[in-house]
Amino acid sequence: MIPKLHYISQGQTPEEHLEHIQKACTAGAELVQLRLKKLPGKTVWETAKKAREITEKYQTRLIINDFYKIAASVKADGVHLGKTDTCPTVARKELASWQIIGGTANTLEDCEALLDKKVDYIGLGPFRFTKTKENLSPVLGINGYLAILEELKSQVPVIAIGGIVLEDVTELMKIGVHGIAVSGEITRNFNSISEFKKLINGGPLDEQRWISDEKIK
Prior knowledge:
The protein is of the alpha/beta class and 217 residues long. Helices cover 47% and strands 16% of the residues. It has ten helices and eight strands. An eight-stranded parallel barrel has the order 1-2-3-4-5-6-7-8, surrounded by six helices. Helix 1 runs parallel beside helix 2 and helix 7 packs parallel to helix 9. The longest helix has 18 residues. The radius of gyration is 17 Å and the shape is globular.
């Protein structure tokens, strides 16, 4: 089962990424993605080893962005591959059977291509504009997700990504995404992890229904 809340690490340095991963794990994150870009492979490998030590302590799943051979080396739980990264079918040959592969999609065609390559989950976005990624496709918004999900009709989990904040979660979950990937909003406040998890699991909505039922009585 793919966790429903993914934290994607941020930081100016590898040390900051590790600090933020530590805070996310402490706050109850079930899955974190180490996302280091434009750094030497050795630096990514050393950081990934330390991230694995942190996540093992908290029994949190660790996904490595892009570097599938490093994910295999440090025994991370899997790898997330962007559209310009290695093909999932190539990465699969390097990974153990228990290690998962996620892929980035911006369109229905992207999703279908990833399904053909047997990914374990799809990171679909962006929901709205975000500065953390370059050369993004046009934002999808709720209507974009709805249109793609209605056509896709797949059991492979779809994770919404791209500038998502707490206020977006309930509507996104209602239209049928499996979960949410968050970077900036959680990095600004790691205590928000518990709030994201409640909304993803429908807790507050259930409470509102209970209150409404009581009023009717």
